[in-house]
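Thread: quick sanity check before group meeting

JM: Hey all, I'm pulling together slides for Thursday and realized we never actually wrote out the predicted structure for the chain we discussed last week. Dropping the sequence here so it's in one place. If anyone has concerns about the input, flag it before I start.
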Amino acid sequence: MSVFQDWAALAKENKAKYPPGTRIELIQMNDPFSPVEAGTRGTVRHVDDAGQLHMQWDNGRTLALVSGEDSFRKLTEEELAEEQKAQEEQENNENMDEDENGPVMTM
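JM (edit): ok, ran it. Output follows.
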């Protein structure tokens, strides 16, 4: 099998396993210059034809993950539910802050 066939097989596997929107937690990134910090969570934007996972990290970075080089895992259903709950609570708190300041009128 050629390198290109290996990449195509990895890309096909990763596209099925990590569709856009999949939430990932980084365990370790093998980047000697500027790795994303371990424990950072992010969302898969897309998987390229070499099988790399292009990420939108929660800290604002966009560095891709490389299968076989970097260590990462999908978030569990429970973790996804916790994130959703925390996001809803934050949105509710932001809405309460606006209500405390009185009505806002726009033209």
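AS: nice. DSSP finds two helices and four strands in the chain. Helices lie at 3-17, 77-100.
JM: adding both to the slides.
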